Amino acid sequence: MSTTRDLPAPAPAPHDPAPHDPAPHDPAPHDPAPRDPARVAVSLTGVHKTYGGVAPVPALRGVDLELLTGSVTAVMGPSGSGKSTLVSVAAGLDTATSGSVRVAGHALDAMSPDALTRFRREQVGFVFQGYNLVPHLDVASNIALPLVLASRRPDAGWSAHLVDRLGLAGLEHRLPGELSGGQAQRVAIARALVARPSIVFADEPTGALDARTGRQVLHLFLDVAREFGQTLVVVTHDAGVAAATGEVVLLADGRVADRMHAPSDEQVAARLLELGR
Ligand SMILES: Nc1ncnc2c1ncn2[C@@H]1O[C@H](COP(=O)(O)OP(=O)(O)O)[C@@H](O)[C@H]1O
Ligand SMILES: [Mg+2]
């Protein structure tokens, strides 16, 4: 039998705290200045969102949430719990009914529609379930689109690095219709990262892919985000992927029901079950 049996048990080290250390993270090599000295990427305070109509639907009912710069967070919860509404409001794609939303130090509720559009172009990346690639533009042009829209000069080195890192080398001149679902979503991820936004939101980005491909793409997305020090918020139903993010926000009935730091797959799955996934 192994002699290690007789040694004292090693100190429990269930989770590596390093990625969540409050010390400033190393800025990405292309970006020597930290983006946000306050270290808070997103802050929602008392956010309510009620969809209008004959019978108003309260989708968010008092959300308080703070996410640190460089954090990678999974948002989970039963269908209809407000996940899509939360990321839309935090990304400035939709407005809160009341409460305050601050992203990268900017109060979104105080912005005019034009300012909000500019802000989104410059600071926010978004990955949708349905890819939303422009069908008549090739892969390279789809990836460059956020820079074109923001009248920014492309950084060829950075784009090439993204293409390479996301396994898209050789596909630059294909049209979206000539890509598999997994390839298309990797293009959408490159596009969300190309302008080095302060924050990237992804709403069930692999919901249209088969489970195995979806998981591969999501793990790649998380790895790349970490490598770049990119703040990322991803809505997912996959407890394994959520556990890999390190920070899990659980929604139920339009409220934050729980937050988990570095949970295991099993802990996430068990908590979801309790919330009536
Ligand atoms: N555009 C809309 N108009 C009216 N109700 C909506 C709209 N979008 C979402 N809802 C409602 O708001 C609640 C939260 O929806 P959503 O944020 O999409 O939840 P999730 O993404 O967790 O499934 C649900 O009751 C949903 O039916
Ligand atoms: Mg949704």
From TrEMBL:
Residue span of region Disordered: 1-37
Pfam families in the record: ABC_tran
UniProt keyword Nuclease present: no
Keyword Translocase in record: no
Protein name: ABC transporter ATP-binding protein
Molecular-function annotations in GO: ATP binding
InterPro entries: AAA+_ATPase, ABC_transporter-like_ATP-bd, ABC_transporter-like_CS, ABC_transpr_LolD-like, MacB-like_ATP-bd, P-loop_NTPase
Superkingdom in the source lineage: Bacteria
Swiss-Prot/TrEMBL keywords: ATP-binding, Nucleotide-binding, Transport
Source organism: Nocardioides zeicaulis
Annotated ranges, domain ABC transporter: 42-272
Residue stretches of biased makeup (Basic and acidic residues): 17-37
